[in-house]
């Protein structure tokens, strides 16, 4: 027998309370953050976390981010440091994930870290995710709420279309405002390393720390195991740095130009970030190959180009 469709819960007090109860009972609940929708499960429960990997078809060597309501909650699970304090003080709650050494009595299911001795922690800013995390009162493991390797979800509809009955419920709080996953910064050893560009512009971190961030290279392989080259992939082929569509293609534009969908007609990178995944979902639904106009590589453009490069990468 088919499982029933997921419950769509409104982000009201009652909806959030229901979502929290389901999470505490070990169910999978998709929930909104300012970056993308997350596929949440109780991070202290091995079986609940195992269900995330099964629902996404995610390789079990790819660790998950743990979400908590504030820095104080994060400190229960990781070895805190001066640098963590500075970064959290400046950017939490917000689209920054910190990778730190696991604390001795961390309480996190080992599947979450895929056997690593570090943990990725994040404090989302969206009021509904804040309310949910406080109601759950446990750390919540959550990857982006899309099938592994596919386009991330920035609306409840994207989640329902991608994961359907594999989630118990979806907390719906409209489209995500940032639209790109969090920036991931490794600060577990030596100096800070940018593990994934994302919704917090790298320049803002560099300004705070007063140093240029070292970037993890793709050739460094599994130090940020989820950063496979092919990722965020639509079903259709993707061609980058296109100034016009070729026959049969649909064109995703940026700045003033003639195109099928425009990330930002005025060339605003924050608007382009917020539109990126939704526009890719829409163009993918046409079934035609997608050509994408160039997007400047600065500010949020670094993360946008990272996602586009992976969307266009050769697939296995
Ligand atoms: O904005 C976001 O970060 C969203 C929302 C839901 O919070 N989450 C998200 O999760 O993007 P996910 O699973 O799609 O991406 C998490 C990335 C993966 O590339 C994973 O390999 C990396 O974080 N990661 C997790 N734990 C890590 C660790 N201990 N060390 C290095 N990388 C880690
Ligand atoms: Mg993801």
Automatic annotation (TrEMBL):
GO terms for molecular function: ATP binding; double-stranded RNA binding; L-threonylcarbamoyladenylate synthase; tRNA binding. L-threonine binds at residues 35, 67, 122, 142, 182. PROSITE patterns: YRDC. It catalyses: L-threonine + hydrogencarbonate + ATP = L-threonylcarbamoyladenylate + diphosphate + H2O. Keywords: ATP-binding, Cytoplasm, Nucleotide-binding, Nucleotidyltransferase, Transferase, tRNA processing. It comes from the Bacteria. One of its GO terms (cellular component) is cytoplasm. Residues 13-200 form the YrdC-like domain. ATP binds at residues 58, 62, 118, 144, 152, 196, 232. Its EC number is 2.7.7.87. InterPro entries: DHBP_synth_RibB-like_a/b_dom, Sua5-like_dom, Sua5/YwlC_C, Sua5_C, T(6)A37_SUA5, TC-AMP_synthase_SUA5. It holds the Pfam family Sua5_yciO_yrdC. It is found in: Cytoplasm. Gene3D superfamilies: DHBP synthase, Threonylcarbamoyl-AMP synthase, C-terminal domain. GO terms for biological process: regulation of translational fidelity; tRNA processing. Required for the formation of a threonylcarbamoyl group on adenosine at position 37 (t(6)A37) in tRNAs that read codons beginning with adenine. Belongs to the SUA5 family. This is Threonylcarbamoyl-AMP synthase. The lineage of its organism: Bacteria, Pseudomonadati, Pseudomonadota, Alphaproteobacteria, Rhodobacterales.
């Amino acid at each position: 027998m088919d499982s029933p469709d997921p419950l769509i819960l409104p982000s009201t007090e009652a909806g959030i309370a229901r979502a929290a109860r389901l999470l505490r009972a070990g169910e999978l609940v998709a929930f909104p953050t300012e970056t993308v929708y997350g596929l949440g499960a109780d991070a202290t429960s091995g079986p609940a976390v195992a269900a995330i990997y099964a629902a996404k078809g995610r390789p079990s060597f790819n660790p998950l981010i743990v979400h908590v309501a504030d820095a104080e909650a994060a400190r229960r699970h990781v070895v805190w440091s001066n640098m963590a304090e500075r970064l959290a003080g400046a950017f939490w709650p917000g689209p920054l994930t910190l990778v730190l050494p696991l604390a001795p009595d961390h309480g996190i299911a080992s599947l979450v870290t895929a056997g690593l001795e570090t943990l990725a922690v994040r404090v989302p800013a969206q009021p509904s995710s804040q309310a949910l995390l406080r109601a759950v009162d446990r750390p919540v493991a959550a990857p982006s709420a899309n099938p592994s390797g596919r386009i991330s979800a920035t609306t409840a509809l994207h989640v329902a279309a991608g994961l359907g009955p594999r989630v118990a419920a979806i907390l719906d709080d409209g489209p995500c405002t940032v639209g790109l996953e969090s920036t991931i910064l490794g600060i577990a050893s030596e100096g800070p390393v940018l593990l994934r560009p994302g919704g917090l512009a790298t320049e803002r971190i560099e300004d705070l720390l007063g140093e240029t961030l070292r970037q993890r290279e793709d050739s460094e392989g599994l130090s940020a195991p989820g950063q496979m080259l092919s990722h965020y992939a639509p079903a259709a082929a993707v061609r980058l740095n296109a100034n016009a569509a070729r026959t049969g293609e649909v064109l995703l534009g940026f700045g003033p130009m003639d195109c099928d969908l425009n990330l930002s007609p005025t060339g605003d990178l924050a608007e382009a970030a917020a539109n990126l995944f939704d526009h890719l979902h829409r163009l993918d639904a046409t079934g035609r190959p997608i050509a994408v106009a160039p997007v400047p590589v600065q500010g949020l453009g670094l993360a946008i180009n990272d996602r586009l490069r992976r969307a266009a990468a050769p697939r296995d």
